[in-house]
Amino acid sequence: MSWTVYLSGEIHTDWREQIEQGVKAAGLDVSFTSAVTHHDASDAAGDHLRDNDNSFWRDHQSSKVNLIRTKTLIEKADLVVVRFGDKYKQWNAAFDAGYCAALGKPYVTLHDDSIIHPLKEVDAQALAWAQTPSQVVDILKYVVAA
Amino acid sequence: MSWTVYLSGEIHTDWREQIEQGVKAAGLDVSFTSAVTHHDASDAAGDHLRDNDNSFWRDHQSSKVNLIRTKTLIEKADLVVVRFGDKYKQWNAAFDAGYCAALGKPYVTLHDDSIIHPLKEVDAQALAWAQTPSQVVDILKYVVAA
Amino acid sequence: MSWTVYLSGEIHTDWREQIEQGVKAAGLDVSFTSAVTHHDASDAAGDHLRDNDNSFWRDHQSSKVNLIRTKTLIEKADLVVVRFGDKYKQWNAAFDAGYCAALGKPYVTLHDDSIIHPLKEVDAQALAWAQTPSQVVDILKYVVAA
Amino acid sequence: MSWTVYLSGEIHTDWREQIEQGVKAAGLDVSFTSAVTHHDASDAAGDHLRDNDNSFWRDHQSSKVNLIRTKTLIEKADLVVVRFGDKYKQWNAAFDAGYCAALGKPYVTLHDDSIIHPLKEVDAQALAWAQTPSQVVDILKYVVAA
Amino acid sequence: MSWTVYLSGEIHTDWREQIEQGVKAAGLDVSFTSAVTHHDASDAAGDHLRDNDNSFWRDHQSSKVNLIRTKTLIEKADLVVVRFGDKYKQWNAAFDAGYCAALGKPYVTLHDDSIIHPLKEVDAQALAWAQTPSQVVDILKYVVAA
Amino acid sequence: MSWTVYLSGEIHTDWREQIEQGVKAAGLDVSFTSAVTHHDASDAAGDHLRDNDNSFWRDHQSSKVNLIRTKTLIEKADLVVVRFGDKYKQWNAAFDAGYCAALGKPYVTLHDDSIIHPLKEVDAQALAWAQTPSQVVDILKYVVAA
Amino acid sequence: MSWTVYLSGEIHTDWREQIEQGVKAAGLDVSFTSAVTHHDASDAAGDHLRDNDNSFWRDHQSSKVNLIRTKTLIEKADLVVVRFGDKYKQWNAAFDAGYCAALGKPYVTLHDDSIIHPLKEVDAQALAWAQTPSQVVDILKYVVAA
Amino acid sequence: MSWTVYLSGEIHTDWREQIEQGVKAAGLDVSFTSAVTHHDASDAAGDHLRDNDNSFWRDHQSSKVNLIRTKTLIEKADLVVVRFGDKYKQWNAAFDAGYCAALGKPYVTLHDDSIIHPLKEVDAQALAWAQTPSQVVDILKYVVAA
Fold first, then answer.
1. How many CA atoms lie within 13 A of G16 on its CB side?
2. What does DSSP say about strands C107-110 and C128-130: parallel, antiparallel, or unpaired?
3. What's the confidence (pLDDT) of residue E121?
4. Domain of life, per the record (chains A, B, C, D, E, F, G, H) (predicted)?
5. Cα(H8)–Cα(H19) distance, rounded to whole angstroms?
6. Across the interface, do F46 and H138 touch by the CB < 8 Å criterion?
7. Most CB contacts within 10 A, which of B96, C26, E14, H51?
8. Is the confidence at residue E68, as pLDDT, over 70?
9. Can you give the pLDDT at residue B132?
10. Distance CA C69, CA C96 (A)
């Protein structure tokens, strides 16, 4: 069986690449999906539809265009990895985790131990908490093994 | 019809009371539910089960006990109001919103305009964005009207 | 058993009142729900949240506030009656019918025979087509009978 | 991932072809489905089963045969585009949109700004409103990108 | 807890009355629902909507009106009893059983041992096969006991 | 798209072969599935598990083994054709139709006009009633067309 | 809100009574349900339907009659407590836990620490592990609090 | 059609190999999945994430990592075979069976006749009870046949 893993959350570090390279090195039959991770492109995803003076509606319009992609890819994934870094609010990552929880979609979190407490509700329904990308790779090596 | 509204998020200001009083003043047939909002009690919700040296497992244990309550009450609610304040990470609030989105459960957000951008994915699936508790009361007056 | 019937569609004639009076006269245990049927109030449902220069976003904001009410009431109804009159586009009525069809929620249509052809897809999944409010009352007398 | 997009609504202009050509030109991995778009064939879809004097039952019979196709294709689509033109009642298009909304199936609308107001309930649950086929192509370019 | 039991199938013997009297005599908190069991009224359920020359459409119209009632009542029932007698085709009873099976709705069958073989697929998903109404009453006494 | 059609019901005439040949002649991308249609093999499907003196349990055991196959194939089908002939009780066919109805799985019936009345509840939720295998082929030609 | 708690598992000690008394003493708005806990009555639940020489079919028949009750009560419960004692196989308790897990129904386990390891898969999806009935009462005091 | 069969339960005998060889010898289009069946590896599945002094949390952590694999594979299987041997508690096997029952996923049990009574609830919802691996192979030969 081929596995599909959706990588949600932080877009300013190379954690996605680390996981993808580790999985590739291990020769696992796993493919990865994610939101569009180019920050400016993502913010502008709906701008071509119409201009908005109001920042709320501009964000609204772009978020919904992004949702066409993310909703579909999350629902098709076999596993979701949700990454929380040390910057920004990252409410979209927590939102994705809640979305997975309600669907019964397995997800694991990836964050360091300084933010255990604020993430306790998110971790409560995760199937694993990893602190490094290589731990996520180790999880995949284990669960994907034939 | 009697409506049940779950109030999720920030526990350090009196927004819940403001909404409840506004609704009471308006004489609406609405009842409110929420997580246990006493911070220390919530953190200690599972402590009576067994002691844990490790903060991750202590939090894990308590979060799951809280989940017995919150999962049930959210699923029984007709509407969820998700409040984001200006402090703390509040990932649990975003998580609840994602949970509602996946269930198709109507939710509205309550936050000021300084955090529009980081909440754009959460607002994208909300049925309204309110900036003040009295706006939430106004929404309820409208939607609950016989 | 008490039945709940949601009345969807046309708001410019008294078809709702005719059905409600017929049911009341028959002494049936049926209660009725519907969207807010005051046209101006409905269009302005979200105006108290924030002003919008743009008519698309004004409509969007109000429609979502209305959705809090209509989505909940449709999902709680035992039967939906969808009325198409001879004026306006009435896409919201067809939308409600499609929503019911996907949920497996029983609905009946109420329209005259001049619009059979354009409503054929809507009628295809309806459990009855009535031409007059009194026919809807007759259906209710029959199906609700102890 | 290969995407499947169902094109619902207006059958008297070439909007489907414009989108298909734009997507082909962009080299996207997208396939398209739709109802049978030949008007007379669609109206006659059930005629071979038995003759009907009554226009209601003739339409009923054909609509259900069409439903075998459309229900299946909509449920298998990753995205539905719902087109409203400037003629006819087009209740079937609004019906499809409501069907998608209840399924949680992403859909976008395609219509010009003269009909914003009557489509407000349909647009309220759409993930985007496009005014031209090329805007739909732009959305697909963005969401389908690897 | 109060139990609701839907009684499906044969309408030409008094098996419903026997079960209802047995349950009443036992003082159980059970209420009963069923289709309209007056044969002629049931066949004519849609006649007030419009006349049909064609017997197929007349039956179709009435069956759908009956469905408003039966679909709702079956879905609300805690248990369905499906009775097969020794006359008629009784495909509607088998249809109801299949409907229950797909919903995961518990049902029991009531028939004598002369029709075990043709009912084997229906009995395969039933939670009990009773041969007499008093056996159904015994089942209810057991399962409903506080 | 490739379509899968499950053929349910009568096993004593060659209606399955007629449909399959018609579809093959038309070059449609349709594959067919069905229960095991060899009568004696089907009745004996569970006999290798253990002997049963009692005919009820022998039938029960075999029916459940058959269910492993039929339940899976029906749920994977895009369309189900349910055939009623002029012999036997055929409750399994009506059961399959009810199963499809509850799942929202499209099905069509195939029977002659002498049994319209006893099949009215089964036909009420079918998307078509065909009287001959060639009419089923015609339906498939229409709905499967690219 | 009134809570309903289903008590699953061991029937040879008084853990149910301990929980019920603790809850009563605390004045909580909780009602309890469970399988029929009289061992002999449960084993004989289907005996009145027909005699069986074969122990497999006797057990089968009775288990299904019990299922009418247990399936319904578990699905209606807000919380399930699953008790594992130190005797017997207790596969039915683990089965109930798996049933809850698939439904997304919250459950907690009640067992001592000598059987942590064999219950690890059951505990993995539980929202709490209690070692004594009074700990279950404490959980209820917390989660049910207004 | 290719079938996928998940093999759940006992890991200390070669029943999986017997089934796989029998199926291979018969040339059936069936593929098999299962949990990681190496006992020590399974117990240590989460150890690389962090060390735990406490055996409960060590087991909890590993069980959840295993769940990423087992939950996904069970949900993708067409049939689950649940094996109970004569040693150990095997609550995970009963848990998997309950999980399947709630999903409506077909499963068969494989156990000898000495444990009929304690497995009666598990067998009640199974589609077959086999006593030997070769009987499971026979079931597959029958249900998978083209």
1. 19
2. parallel
3. 98
4. Bacteria
5. 12
6. no
7. B96
8. yes
9. 98
10. 13
Instruction: Provide the pLDDT confidence category of residue B75 given band limits of 50, 70 and 90.
Output: very high
User: Which chain H residues are closer than 8 Å to A143 by Cβ?
Assistant: 65-66, 68-69, 72
Chain E contact for F3, CB < 8 A? no
Q: Which CATH architecture has domain B3-41+78-145?
A: 3-Layer(aba) Sandwich (3.40)
Q: Does the CB of G1 have a partner CB in chain B at under 8 Å?
A: yes
Total residue length of chain F: 146
- H3: which strand partners? H30
The pLDDT value recorded for residue D146 is 62
The pLDDT of residue H1 is: 84
Q: Which of E128, E133, E121 is nearest to E143 (CA)?
A: E128
Cα B84 from Cα B102, distance rounded (Å): 20
The token pair at A42 is 């993502």
**How many whole angstroms separate alpha carbon C124 and alpha carbon D60?**
5
Residue H74 parent element (H or E): helix H55-76
Q: What is the rounded distance in angstroms from the CA atom of residue G83 to the CA atom of residue G16?
A: 9
CA D112 to chain centre: 16
> Structure tokens of H15?
């029943």
Question: Whole-angstrom Cα distance, residue H51 to residue H53?
Answer: 7
Separation of CA H40 from chain center: 18
pLDDT single digits (tens) E107-135: 999 999 999 999 999 999 999 999 999 99
Phi/psi at F102 (nearest 5 deg)? Answer: -65, -30
More confident position, C87 or D13: D13
Q: List the single residue in C with minimal CA-CA distance to E33.
A: C146
List the end-to-end C-alpha distance of chain G, in Å, as a whole number: 8
Return the pLDDT at H146. Answer: 62
In the predicted model, what is the mean pLDDT of residues B34-47? 96
**Binary contact (A64, D145; C-beta < 8 A):** no
The Cα–Cα gap between D62 and D85 comes to 23
- Find all residues with CB under 8 Å of F131, minimum gap 6, and list them: D49, D50, F110, F111, F112, F113
Instruction: Examine chains A and B and say if they touch (3+ CB pairs below 8 A).
Output: yes
Residues of D in contact with F135 (CB under 8 A): 48-49
Contact of chains B and F by CB distance (3 or more pairs under 8 angstroms)? no
Burial class (CB in 10 A: 0-12, 13-18, 19+), B137: buried
Average pLDDT over residues F111-117: 97
What pLDDT digit, counting tens, does each position of F96-108 carry?
999 999 999 999 9
- What confidence score (pLDDT) does residue H130 get? 98
Report how far apart, in Å, the C-alpha atoms of B120 and of each of A31, A42, A131, B113, B124 are.
Answer: 28, 11, 27, 11, 6
* ipTM of predicted assembly, 2 dp: 0.97
Question: Among all chains, which residue has been given the structure tokens 């978020």?
Answer: A63
Angle made by CA atoms A121, A123, A126, in degrees to the nearest 5 = 120
Tell me which chain B residues have a C-beta less than 8 angstroms from the C-beta of A97: 95, 98
> Which one-letter DSSP state was computed for residue E127?
S
Q: How confident is the model at residue F146 (pLDDT cuts 50, 70, 90)?
A: low
Rounded CA-CA distance A90/A15 in Å is 15
pLDDT tens digits, one per residue of C67-122: 999 999 999 999 999 999 988 899 999 999 999 999 999 999 999 999 999 999 99
Strand order in the sheet with E128-130: E30-33, E3-9, E79-83, E107-110, E128-130
Give me the DSSP letters along chain A: --EEEEEEE--SSSHHHHHHHHHHHTT--EEEE-S---HHHHHTTTTTT---SSHHHHHHHHHHHHHHHHHHHHHH-SEEEEE--SSS--HHHHHHHHHHHHHT--EEEE--GGGTTTTHHHHHT-SEEESSHHHHHHHHHHHH--
Structure tokens at H126: 């199974």
Of A33, A65, A73, the CB nearest to D142: A65
